[in-house]
Design brief:
- By secondary structure, this protein is an alpha/beta fold.
- Helices cover about 50% and strands about 5% of the residues.
- It has 12 helices and 7 strands.
- The strands form 2 sheets. A 5-stranded parallel β-sheet has the order 2-3-1-4-5, with helices on both faces. A two-stranded antiparallel ribbon has the order 6-7.
- Strand 6 and strand 7 form a beta hairpin.
- Helix 8 packs across helix 9.
- The chain is globular and about 80 Å long.
Length: about 300
């Protein structure tokens, strides 16, 4: 293998993305309250190293940290994220501090969207939390989101998945609508760079300098640990290949949800086929009701 070439992945999807294979806990966050303090708000947008940052924070003990894919571990989270998007962008019922504690009361830190779409709201709800802005060149960032995140939204299977898997993929569709029509004002392609700059400028404006760290993945542990007041780990700072991981995780998700959505139809058709065969061949059991009960 050439120097610097990426090693082929040998782990199974279940080993790489265990959260996609866990049973749905069906937790209704509306019934929850805050269990642990919110300590860190990573409000940099997606594709700025948020997956690496999520892993780094958990290595430092901020467990759990909420990342974009966390919502897939408990799909009903999407119900409350939709309420938050509706409140901010579509004239819905106000989303209060109590609501944030219900939705995020089990986590000590957040990264990535959808959380980053609510920077001012989360800062107001948790004024004592440290704020980190993961950052990168805006042109490279925009190219990255258009060739990964939003390219994935044009996959030909998605309309089918939204239709047959409303419990899971239908909820994800609601978050996608909030992200595109709300946060990106209808077009990430046209508005993305402007929204990016406005978002970062707003966070810089409302967060006191002593409570804000601007950070680029690749800097290592020192500045971040000093800012958070944590000891520097002996392990190297995690470096998640977000492009590869994002695409592979979505491929796994699509395959899994396609089968989950089709399974009831497949089983139904199989049962009908078996019943039809038994009926046509005369092997269907004859059922009668006599004075002594059911007879087959």
């Amino acid at each position: 293998m050439a120097h610097g070439a990426e090693k082929p992945e040998t782990r199974t999807d279940r080993e790489r993305f265990p959260e996609l294979f866990r049973p749905d806990p069906c937790i209704d966050r509306h019934t929850c309250t805050r269990q642990v303090p919110m300590k860190v708000l990573v409000l940099g947008l997606m594709r700025t190293g948020t997956a690496s940052m999520s892993r780094a924070l958990e290595m430092l003990g901020y467990n759990p940290t909420y990342h974009y894919f966390t919502q897939f571990e408990n799909p009903s989270d999407c119900d409350m994220w939709k309420e938050a998007f509706d409140a901010k962008y579509f004239g819905g019922k106000p989303f209060t501090k109590e609501n944030w504690d219900q939705l995020l009361g089990h986590v000590q830190a957040v990264t990535d969207v959808p959380a980053a779409c609510f920077g001012p709201e989360l800062i107001a709800a948790y004024p004592d939390a440290k704020v980190i802005l993961t950052n990168r060149d805006v042109d490279k960032w925009h190219h990255s989101i258009m060739t990964t995140v939003f390219q994935a939204h044009h996959h030909p299977l998605l309309p089918v998945l939204f239709f047959i898997d409303k419990k899971f993929m239908g909820r994800w569709r609601d978050i996608t609508i909030g992200l595109i029509r709300g946060f990106f004002q209808g077009s990430p392609e046209k508005n993305g760079k402007r929204i990016y700059q406005e978002h970062y400028d707003e966070i810089r404006r409302i967060v006191p300098k002593e409570n804000l760290l601007e950070f680029q993945i690749g800097e290592g542990w020192e500045r971040m640990c000093e800012f958070l007041g944590d000891e520097v780990p002996k392990e190297p700072f995690p470096n998640v290949n977000e492009t590869r991981t994002f695409g592979d995780r979505l491929d796994c998700l699509r395959k899994q949800r396609l089968w989950a959505g089709l399974k009831p139809y497949v089983y139904g058709l199989s049962a009908a086929a078996v019943a039809g065969t038994l009926w046509a061949t005369g092997a269907w059991p004859k059922v009668t009701f006599g004075s002594t009960g059911l007879t087959i």
